[in-house]
Specification:
Oligomer: single chain
Number of strands: 7
Structural class: alpha+beta
């Protein structure tokens, strides 16, 4: 009884620290990429190829996949063991959800055996027939490319569409806005968007041809052992 009263005033008996070895006590803590899992409400979330998200009035909640299901964009960046692809994936997540580097590192460590270079391992176990005909459609061709080739198609197309401006303050003069809305630039943006949609579909076909299940509605890939990342950003931190 006294112990409960003392704890309300912030008192913790010194002897309790010896009941659990230091290493075991650390292992009981949630890893960084799981700290915000309880606050995510998937039933109210919107999704795309990279993440799911929703707002609750106090901030934004993000989930990078769900347990055993990786976002197809994350899968595309992790097809091969390519440092630049992982750097682009991290950049996309920092830009989109403001996720800190230590949290991303925790997520990568948890998924190292499942995700890193998994496409190359799939190719080693499953040789694809390389015969092509002049009538072959893109849906027939996509499963035939190699893992590193699909990784390049996806990463470059993603980067073209999600290219970030190097300027922190965008131009806002009347002259700038007239040029920024010029039909040539608008068509270029639409082309990049259409290209990314096609490449994501090719990636899904490539994965399915190697025995993986793809949920096209939520844009997830079934990868047993995958650990989702959850993150919450507070409203007062929004720009």
């Amino acid at each position: 009884m006294l112990d409960r009263v003392f704890r309300r005033f912030g008192y913790v008996p010194v002897s309790t620290s010896t009941l659990v070895p230091h290493g075991e006590a650390l292992s009981l803590r949630e890893p960084l990429h799981r700290l915000h899992a309880d606050g995510f409400d998937r039933s109210s979330a919107s999704t795309d190829a990279l993440c799911a998200w929703h707002e609750d009035g106090e901030g934004s909640h993000f989930a990078i996949g769900r347990d055993d299901w990786a976002p197809i964009a994350a899968a595309g960046f992790c097809l091969t063991d390519n440092d630049q692809c992982r750097a682009w994936l991290d950049e996309a997540l920092r830009t989109r959800a403001w996720i800190a580097n230590d949290m991303l590192a925790s997520w990568h460590d948890a998924n190292r055996n499942v995700m890193r270079g998994f496409g190359t391992r799939l190719d080693e176990r499953s040789a694809q027939q390389q015969a092509l005909s002049v009538t072959s459609s893109e849906h027939e061709i996509a499963p035939l490319v190699k893992a590193d080739e699909m990784a390049e198609l996806f990463a470059i197309t993603w980067k073209r569409y999600y290219l970030s401006s190097p300027f922190q303050r965008l131009g806002n003069s009347a002259a700038f806005n007239r040029l920024a809305l010029h039909h040539t630039l608008r068509l270029a943006a639409q082309t990049n968007e259409h290209a990314l949609e096609r490449v994501v579909e090719w990636l899904a076909l490539w994965l399915e041809a190697r025995g993986l299940t793809v949920d096209r509605r939520e844009q997830l890939v079934y990868m047993p052992g995958y650990h989702a990342l959850y993150f919450r950003s507070d409203a007062e931190l929004w720009p």
